[in-house]
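Example 3.2
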Amino acid sequence: MDAATTSVARCTFRESTIAMYVEEKSSFNQLLNDINSFFPVVDLGSSKITFSFNGGTKCNLNSDRDMQMMFVSQRVANADFIDIEVAELQNKILHGDDRQIIFMSDRNNGLINTIREWFPGHPHAFCYHHLKHNIEARFPGSNNRETRETVIQLFTSCAYTLSKKRFHKKLDDLKREGGDVIKSFLSGLPFENWANSYFPGQRYGEMCSNIVESFNSMMLRERELPITQLVDGIRANLMRFIGERSHQARKWNIVLCPTYEKLLVSYVKAGENWIVNRSNEDVYEVLSKFICKVDLAERSCSCNQWKFTGFPCVHAVTVMKFIDVDPYQYVDYYFKAETFRECYSHSILPIVQNPDDLPDNDEVPVLLPPKTKNQPGRPRTKRFKSSGEVGKIKCGRCGQLGGHNRRTCSETI
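Structure, written as tokens:
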């Protein structure tokens, strides 16, 4: 939050003094001035607070197109119920913006109902990793390991494939291999929420809400602090995060972000020996490992990769090289270095604590501790894992990484 035009309140909390700054037009709000610079996928998630307050931070995260995250909003909320300030989020994301926004989250019922009610017409994608862990939980134990791995592989193929024909072929294999367990799991899972071939919007290659986990990792130390210090710790982390990326982007003298500049070059090289045939001014046939139809006017390819990622596929780039047109004109705004710089053009300013502006000690209001009772035992510091989510361990007998140890190992030595 900005130090200028700021009203200051001084609070005492458990013998520590904290300066709290409040203003209507803070740097956090200024970050949203160029909301159109963010690519339209919003990840929803939360982080458990380990301080003696029964709650958590609800975070809504967006990312730029060089695989970096951008913070949209955060708040502290009670964790006993789904508490999302949907009106505020709706105003920040959709106000003056006619784009279709993609929401990414786990299968929390509160999130599903909230997005359906407050954001009609904007697709909701379920995180692939959460779904995969849910399936793993339905095939527990070392005896089901082979079946579990086969089912996960088939589910991954169903989720990622871009062809509806191939999707249904893999889906039949998945149901046959997983039996009634998988049929029951899929019965409450609409195709449009997890399968690329049926997804109604453009998800720009995003399949997981890992960006939320990245945010949680960034604030591991801060979430053990009292609430006011927690929020200030998030502010300091974001100030440093945005400043570093803004400084980094100033050094670029390329059109696209580095990740996609390299990808474009690799596509040019990959299609050097392919044959391109012209159908008309916009439609072309590309003879690669298989035959593809590229329509430059519709910005589409029969491989569906262009639609899925929003970035021209290798077949489209080959056509552009063949007709000698600039491929950059077919690349979406979100992938360009200029957009990256706009994302981080508004910085979060440091908070300046001027002793002369603070009230006298006699006027200091006292902020009492929250009325909560600490549970017995050592406070939990790690997040609650999703159903079926387990860490990989190394077996002392066979040496493999997986979900078994020496005692349960059944590998042939």
